[in-house]
Design goal:
Elements (H helix, E strand, L loop, with lengths): L8 H13 L7 H4 L20 H5 L7 H14 L2 H6 L18 E15 L2 E12 L2 E14 L2 E8 L2
Antiparallel strand pairs: 1-2, 2-3, 3-4
């Protein structure tokens, strides 16, 4: 809360969306389990409205590869296929991801292990994402490659070490 005692309008909007407008069953379990309902799913510890929210809303571009990767994790949590495809480099982007056809994934957390700028507009982000499908736990460990073109970061591809 700002010093003037007023609630940040962006935070109050997110709170309303998460608690009033969206039925509780539509809020991803990973967000319902957070300490505060406005925490960002990416695990940064910052409010969604001050972290990945502006990226997904299209009001602010992610400033680096790690921020883009974190926003893409949030998009998986929120099942925002449009953001995932919009941030995937056109040379490697699939036509669709089929998130609406897949079994519901319960995202449990994200740990960023490494963010390395490779120079010449290239970066690698190593992360581990934990999730469950049909109650069975899984772990995705990936080295994701990112490319900076015309001032915009793109997800290029990834490999599992």
């Amino acid at each position: 809360m700002p010093d003037n005692g007023r609630i940040d309008p962006a935070l109050s909007l997110i709170t309303v969306l998460l608690t009033k407008i969206m039925p509780l069953t539509r809020i991803p379990a990973s967000m319902r389990a957070m300490t505060h309902p406005t925490d960002c799913p990416c695990g940064s510890g910052r409010p969604f409205a001050q972290c990945c929210g502006p990226y997904l809303a299209g009001t602010t571009p992610p400033p680096d590869a790690e921020a883009l990767m974190r926003s893409r994790y949030c998009a998986y949590v929120l099942r925002d296929e449009a953001w995932l495809l919009a941030t995937w480099h056109p040379d490697t982007r699939p036509a669709s991801l089929g998130l609406d056809r897949e079994p519901a994934t319960k995202w449990l957390g994200l740990a960023v292990k490494r963010h390395e700028n490779g120079g010449e507009g290239r970066a690698v982000v190593e992360f581990v994402a934990r999730y469950k499908i049909h109650g069975r736990a899984h772990r995705l460990h990936e080295n994701s490659r990112f490319l900076l073109e015309n001032g915009r970061w793109w997800y290029l591809d990834g490999n599992c070490p």
